[in-house]
Amino acid sequence: MLKINNLTAHYGAAQALFGVDLEISTGETVALVGANGAGKSTLLKCLMGLVKPTGGEILLDGKPVTGKNPAQMVRLGLALSPEGREVFPELSVRENLQLGAIPLKLSKAEEAERIEEVFDRFPKLRERHLQLAGTLSGGEQQMLAIGRALMAKPRILLLDEPSLGIAPIITDEIFAIIHQLSRSGTTILLVEQNAARALSGSDRAYLLANGKIVEQGKSDELLNDPILRSAFLGAA
Ligand code: ATP
């Protein structure tokens, strides 16, 4: 469904991605793990059209989509829940959700229906639909960021560090929702620093180090991979 070939990206003169190859099939949950600064967010931003790759290509259903802008990528079926959540603090929960579907130019009725679907998945957001997003807890803001991405009914959901800075009990809740999404057939690319968590909740995984894929495979096998274990799972 999604194929990345030999992707490179730069910030000015600094290179962040060095020839990344990655593939996601329909219905899979794929984890992308790696240390701080490895390039995980950059890869997601390239997929979303937020960072223009400097080389390589991105294929969606075999068609090149490299260099398209974020609104076009949303219309093609990708949506991102960004690192740090990036909800609009001065807008209400409902208004933040509305933003997720803007590129799709939905009717008011369709928009309201999708908001209800998000509320069914995240009942806490329904309770707080008029509350300003900036006054939500970190966990609630994370739910809102995921909900906002779901407003686009993406074929591929990109999740950047959904557990970052969130209390463990809320992280469990968020991962339970991610698993439900995955079971209901949503294709997911999950970026996580918590490698154990990412591997236990995914089908396959890639390990990114210094802008390069250095390991890949089935998640349950990678849980026992010596390189990954010594780097991330606290065992040699
Ligand atoms: P983290 O988990 O810390 O977000 P990451 O794996 O997502 O790490 P990236 O954020 O993709 O890593 O960063 C990859 C490299 O690109 C790093 O060296 C980072 O300093 C650099 N970088 C990221 N964003 C920018 C930017 N806007 N301008 C310049 N350099 C950047």
Automatic annotation (TrEMBL):
Protein's UniProt keywords contain Protein biosynthesis: no
Protein's UniProt keywords contain Ligase: yes
Molecular function (Gene Ontology), one example: ATP hydrolysis activity
Keyword annotations: ATP-binding, Ligase, Nucleotide-binding
Domain ABC transporter: 2-235
GO terms of biological process kind: phenylacetate catabolic process
Oligomeric and partner information: Monomer.
Family per similarity comment: Belongs to the phenylacetyl-CoA ligase family.
Protein name in the entry: Phenylacetate-coenzyme A ligase
Annotated source species: Malonomonas rubra DSM 5091
Residues represented out of the complete protein: 1 to 236 of 695
